[in-house]
Design a protein that fits this description.
- This protein is an alpha/beta fold and 456 residues long.
- It has two domains: 3-17 and 261-455, Alpha-beta prism (UDP-n-acetylglucosamine1-carboxyvinyl-transferase, Chain); 20-248, Enolpyruvate transferase domain (UDP-n-acetylglucosamine1-carboxyvinyl-transferase, Chain, Alpha-beta prism), CATH 3.65.10.
- The chain has helices at residues 20-32, 46-57, 118-128, 149-157, 190-198, 218-230, 263-276, 295-302, 341-349, 370-380, 415-425, 447-450; strands spanning 3-5, 12-15, 34-40, 61-67, 86-95, 109-113, 134-138, 161-165, 168-174, 180-183, 207-211, 236-237, 243-247, 256-258, 279-283, 306-311, 317-322, 331-333, 352-358, 384-388, 391-397, 408-409, 432-434, 454-455.
- Helix 2 (46-57) runs parallel beside helix 3.
- Residues 7-449 form the Enolpyruvate transferase domain.
Length: 456
């Protein structure tokens, strides 16, 4: 699908979709608990749907609740179905770490397709290591290129049987989890989160020790640990997260809670306002949440925007973004927040002077090599960039200057690339077309409509 974005000033009030990272963690934790949990106002997107499918493949019952009549329906960002109803809750009947499964495996193997969801894949791989039968994972063409080799090596060190295609799907996993001490370098934090979620469920008396010589995206580990603490699951951790010790014999508890808004998704309407000189009010975000991507708004402030938190009464905190002066470049360390690179690169394209996005080599192993893709596609819009091994320098001139009057940008099947260029297009002199636009639904199904995109 190709989307055409016409230039206009972006302003208004936007309720931000629920956090994908929180939604997937809550789905898996609820599935591992023994009993019924309620997840209120989760993210309804392609990635979270992939996680639901994975949980159901493990024998978990998940019931959807939808409505077309509730307070705030019009601003609620989940997509409506053909009846006009939006997802408001998942009721998850967990089966005690998948120990009460009723579904017979197909020819002795349970097969799970994670679609495009790397988070679902990595977290579920470790959970599968607790199971006695063979479980096979597959996914779409992008997932087939994303390696889980370090995670699989660690799982093998804990006694789990693993086979793969050079670390990529198709991957087969078979327990049991014997415990032990392993080294786990984490170019993505999801490897470590996977072991932290699964290892407490190993048999009583089992000890899992994890040495972490490399850890990117540290805030996502803080998010995972917040769930362990909330469920009173014991663990020991070095202050710098270079070592963990987790005893087996624990259990995840049932719960009922709402999912907070997603700071990484919030970056895109904020960029849309910033590059067009607009003003936007963002709802649904919690400034106290563990999400590292809230750092985006500090960077936005440093580049020249006003960023204000205000009390919104019953609707919670409001985050207001105003740009009333030129944007300026800077140097920003994105090691903890690699998902922000596409949005920051677009913001930098509209800034005056160079902007260096550094210490983020792991942005090359996301859905795409986001460093290379942003450099190549920004060039189509007249923006020069210099690639670094671990980052990107954007040579901003305050505006886009494409040679082609009607430029076409390749979305490369990457939801964050698509949304970044949709925001960028708003500030161009002429419309911009973006291919693979359907991938925005991986994280933010309504974003292209929000910015007035016309699809074909």
């Amino acid at each position: 699908m190709t989307v055409k974005i016409s230039p206009h000033r972006f302003s208004g009030t936007v309720r931000i979709p629920a956090s994908k990272s929180h939604t997937i963690r809550q789905l898996l934790i609820a599935s591992l608990a023994n009993g019924v949990s309620e997840i209120h106002y989760p993210l309804d997107s392609l990635d979270t749907r992939s996680c639901v499918s994975a949980c159901r493949a493990f024998g978990v019952e998940i019931t959807e609740f939808r409505s077309a009549c509730f307070p705030g329906y019009n601003e609620y960002p989940n997509p409506a179905d053909e009846k006009g109803e939006k997802l408001t809750k998942w009721e998850v009947k967990g089966n005690n770490a998948f120990n009460k499964r009723d579904l017979p495996p197909t020819q002795g193997v349970t097969r799970i397709d994670v679609g495009n969801s790397g988070t679902t894949l990595y977290l579920a791989l470790a959970i599968a290591g607790l199971q006695a039968e063979l479980i096979e994972f597959t996914g779409d063409r992008q997932i087939q290129k994303r390696s889980a080799a370090s995670l699989l090596e660690a799982l093998e060190g804990l006694g789990v049987q693993c086979t793969s295609k050079n670390g990529c799907v198709p991957i087969t996993i078979k327990g049991p989890w014997a415990g032990g001490k392993v080294s786990l370098p984490c170019p993505t934090s999801q490897y470590l989160s996977a072991l932290l979620i699964a290892s407490p469920l190993a048999p009583s008396g089992t000890i899992t020790e994890i040495e972490v010589p490399l850890l990117n995206e540290k805030p996502y580990i803080e998010m995972t640990l917040s769930y362990l603490n909330a469920h009173r699951i014991p663990f020991k951790a070095a202050q710098d997260y270079s070592y963990f010790k987790i005893p087996g014999g624990s259990s995840w508890k049932t719960f009922s809670c709402s999912v907070p808004g997603d700071f990484s998704s919030a970056a895109f309407p904020a960029v849309a306002a910033a590059v067009t000189g607009g003003s936007v009010t963002l709802l649904g975000l919690d400034p106290e949440d563990t999400q590292g991507d809230k750092y985006f708004f500090e960077m936005l402030k440093q580049m020249g925007c006003e960023v204000l938190w205000e009390d919104g009464g019953e609707s919670g905190k409001k985050l207001i973004i105003i740009r009333n002066r030129p944007l300026k470049g800077g140097i920003f360390d994105l090691n903890k927040t690699p998902d922000l690179l596409p949005a920051m690169a677009v913001l930098a394209a509209y800034a005056h002077g160079d902007t260096a996005l550094v210490n983020v080599a792991h942005a090359r192993i996301k859905e795409t090599d986001r460093i290379a893709v942003m450099a190549r596609e920004l060039a189509k819009l007249g923006v020069n960039c210099t690639e670094l091994p671990d980052g990107l320098v954007v040579h901003g001139q305050g505006a886009l200057s494409p040679n082609d009057r009607n430029p076409v940008v390749d979305g490369c099947g990457d939801h964050r690339i698509v949304m970044a260029f949709a925001a960028a297009a708003l500030g161009n002199e002429n419309p911009v077309e973006i291919t693979d636009a359907e991938n925005a639904s991986v994280t933010y199904p309504g974003f292209l409509d929000l910015v007035g995109g016309v699809t074909r």
